[in-house]
């Protein structure tokens, strides 16, 4: 059976959601339904999906989520970040566990399902419905999410912590958050998207995030994916940047049976710069795919990308980082690197940094490495009495720390470091050491 | 404590140590001196278990155990620690992790539970202060971006925390200015104890002004050709190595 044969099954599952919302929204949703009916889920013949086969996902029967109480799970999985907190259980906003605190002037943080009209001019402005079948599906049937709207010069000092928790359900659930961030001129904020859940949760998270940065705006975005290894997770982050704006992304991918993250950045005016940091760590048979695309559409724009992967057991990683320098986008800098550590003979990485350059006065670099641990460092640690497995663990964590150490929120930094240490192969377990 | 008998070692089929004998008793401080290329660093590398050295004859025992049969980490746990001539930089591994993992490995070997966090921090802070090192050092990566002097101080700090029975210091004085040398020497001297032995491999007599050895050996051509007390160092300083080598040849 080809993937397209599942399209109807998916459409009928999400149909009740398509009619949710005000008229302008249901019109938009209906358009996306048609997109999805045409495209279906992406198949492996598409270049961008060559290494990630979603057939097993396509075949599954998902239901729309219902409101459930998961206070304990939410508390257990919380990173305890100081600041605003919005909790979503199986994708639905949970006001009881959320804390919207006192917002400074010019800042709006609104759960989306109840405030759809506030998002009328924002929704779908950055993420094209036809980016992939998943993006179309999300637009057609997102259930909830958040709108973070920052007026010109509005500065949100504390981070906005978006906690998504998946519960274990008899029938697997389709969780489709929509996250909208709109930053006015010189506005600033930090947003954390954190996904985790019950160990037995086997749902599907299909996330779309749109970020729009006006002149001089600064947004730092954390995507922390720690879902169960039974969960499917597909997400795309779409960013549009105006003059002198800066966007920083920390993308930490630890969970999921199959996880795919797309990041698309449009640098549309001079002085715009983007930093893309990523770490993926695979165990068992996890399949972790990261695709990033930066379009340098204007001169004097900069992009810096550093992704690191650790793959153990039979896990598989995919990295595709693409930077496109368009004609007349002179004086740009684009730097990209992807390094991978393979901890087992059966682990695999498919990595492809790509540069496409149509301007002549540019500074670009790209590279990818795949290897094992440094023998002289291993000897130095063992010569202090540290056994080989632990020494390997410390060096593996060190490799990950090159990315983790750029996380600026202490609670997030420490817990991600601990989570990474705890997910290293069992005999390398450093839990308690960090 | 350490007994090296007729040790023969080759590196890439070239014989470097050609029947070396050395006995270190508890509480003794020995200095092994000699011209460049004599095999000084080979000796410490073989005792620590570094790859690439082929032992073609002889034996090394530590407290009666066959060292050559032990894994690298077992040697350290048994109480032998090597202070490196060129300490390796290990980006991303914080000093505090290395110290804690190493100390707990030793404690496990001794049948002790893992050290409690407050006790560990107290111990580490005290030793840091002794080595005139800042607390921020703990959260820096091992040796990354350290000056030559900081690297050597770090080696001694590890010794102070891990308290080996035998400290083997390979050219611990190389690349140090006089102030750094004094700090390092003070650290080493504080390790001196009737149960602990120290072996210093050095090219320069200067170190021995600060850490006064009980015994001095001259290593040349892969063998120890002369041994004596601390007065030998002064003689070497004045007259060089040639006379010892000539004397040995006769």
UniProtKB/TrEMBL annotation, chain B:
Checking InterPro entries in the record gives: AAA+_ATPase, ABC_transporter-like_ATP-bd, ABC_transporter-like_CS, FeS-cluster_ATPase_SufC, P-loop_NTPase
- An example Gene Ontology molecular-function term: ATP hydrolysis activity
Q: What family does the database annotate?
A: Belongs to the ABC transporter superfamily. Ycf16 family.
Signal peptide extent: none
- Segments forming domain ABC transporter: 2-246
Annotated PANTHER family: ABC TRANSPORTER I FAMILY MEMBER 6, CHLOROPLASTIC
What is the scientific name of the source organism? Oceanospirillum sediminis
Keywords, in A-Z order: ATP-binding, Nucleotide-binding
Query: What SMART domains does the record tag this protein with?
Result: AAA
The keyword ATP-binding belongs to this UniProt entry's keyword annotation: yes
Entry-linked Pfam families: ABC_tran
Q: What is this protein called?
A: Fe-S cluster assembly ATPase SufC
What Gene3D superfamilies does the record point to? P-loop containing nucleotide triphosphate hydrolases (3.40.50.300)
């Amino acid at each position: 059976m080809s993937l397209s044969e599942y399209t109807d099954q998916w459409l009928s599952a999400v149909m009740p959601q398509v009619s949710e919302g005000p008229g302008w929204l249901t019109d938009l949703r209906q358009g996306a339904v048609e997109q999805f009916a045409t495209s279906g889920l992406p198949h492996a013949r598409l270049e961008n999906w060559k290494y990630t086969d979603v057939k097993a996902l396509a075949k599954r029967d998902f239901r729309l989520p219902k409101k459930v109480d998961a206070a304990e799970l939410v508390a257990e999985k919380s990173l305890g970040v100081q600041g605003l907190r919005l909790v979503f259980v199986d994708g639905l906003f949970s006001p009881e566990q959320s804390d919207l605190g006192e917002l400074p002037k010019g800042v709006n943080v609104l759960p989306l399902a109840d405030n759809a009209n506030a998002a009328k001019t924002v929704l779908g402005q950055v993420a094209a419905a036809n980016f992939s079948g998943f993006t179309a599906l999300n637009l057609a049937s997102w259930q909830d999410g958040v709108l973070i709207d920052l007026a010109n010069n509005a500065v949100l000092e504390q981070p906005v912590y978006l906690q998504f928790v998946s519960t274990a359900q008899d029938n697997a659930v389709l969780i489709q958050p929509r996250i909208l961030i709109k930053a006015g001129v010189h506005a600033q904020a930090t947003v954390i998207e954190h996904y985790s859940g019950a160990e037995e949760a086997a749902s599907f998270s299909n996330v779309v995030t749109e970020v729009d940065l006006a002149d001089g705006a600064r947004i730092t975005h954390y995507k922390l994916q720690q879902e169960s290894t039974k969960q499917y997770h597909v997400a795309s982050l779409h960013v549009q940047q105006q003059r002198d704006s800066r966007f920083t992304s920390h993308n930490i991918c630890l969970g999921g049976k199959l996880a795919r993250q797309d990041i698309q950045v449009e640098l549309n005016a001079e002085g715009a710069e983007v930093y893309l940091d990523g770490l993926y760590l695979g165990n068992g048979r996890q399949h972790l795919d990261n695709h990033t695309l930066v379009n340098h559409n204007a001169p004097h724009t900069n992009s810096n990308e550093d992704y690191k992967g650790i793959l153990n057991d039979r896990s598989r990683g995919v990295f595709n980082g693409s930077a496109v320098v368009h004609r007349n986008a002179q004086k740009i800098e684009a730097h990209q690197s992807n390094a991978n550590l393979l901890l087992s003979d059966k682990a695999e990485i498919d990595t492809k940094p790509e540069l496409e350059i149509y301007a002549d006065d540019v500074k670009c670099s790209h590279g990818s490495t795949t290897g094992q641990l440094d023998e002289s460092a291993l000897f130095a640690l063992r010569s202090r009495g540290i056994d080989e497995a632990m020494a390997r663990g410390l060096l593996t964590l060190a490799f990950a720390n090159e990315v983790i150490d750029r996380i600026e929120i202490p609670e997030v930094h420490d817990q991600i470091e601990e989570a990474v240490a705890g997910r290293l192969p069992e005999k390398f377990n450093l839990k308690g050491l960090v | 404590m350490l007994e090296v008998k007729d040790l023969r070692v080759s590196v890439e089929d070239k014989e470097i140590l050609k029947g070396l004998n050395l006995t270190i008793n508890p509480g003794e401080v020995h200095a092994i001196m000699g011209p460049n290329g004599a095999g000084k660093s080979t000796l410490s590398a073989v005792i620590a278990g570094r790859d690439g050295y082929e032992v073609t004859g002889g034996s090394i025992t530590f407290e009666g155990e066959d060292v050559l049969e032990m894994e690298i980490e077992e040697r350290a746990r048994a109480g032998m620690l090597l202070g490196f001539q060129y300490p390796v930089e290990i980006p991303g591994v914080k000093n505090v992790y290395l110290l804690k993992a190493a100390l707990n490995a030793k404690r496990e070997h001794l049948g002790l539970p893992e050290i409690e966090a407050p006790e560990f921090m107290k111990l580490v802070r005290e030793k840091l202060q002794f080595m005139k090192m800042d607390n921020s050092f703990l959260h820096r990566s091992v040796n990354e971006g350290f000056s030559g002097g900081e690297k050597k101080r770090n080696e001694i700090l590890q010794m102070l925390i891990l308290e080996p029975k035998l400290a083997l210091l390979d050219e611990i004085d190389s690349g140090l200015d006089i102030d750094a040398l004094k700090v390092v020497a003070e650290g080493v001297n504080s390790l001196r104890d009737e149960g602990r032995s120290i072996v210093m491999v050095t090219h320069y007599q200067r170190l021995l002004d600060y850490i006064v050895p009980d015994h001095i050996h001259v290593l040349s051509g892969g063998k120890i050709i002369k041994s004596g007390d601390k007065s030998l160092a002064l003689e070497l300083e004045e007259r060089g190595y040639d006379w010892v080598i000539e004397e040995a040849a006769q």
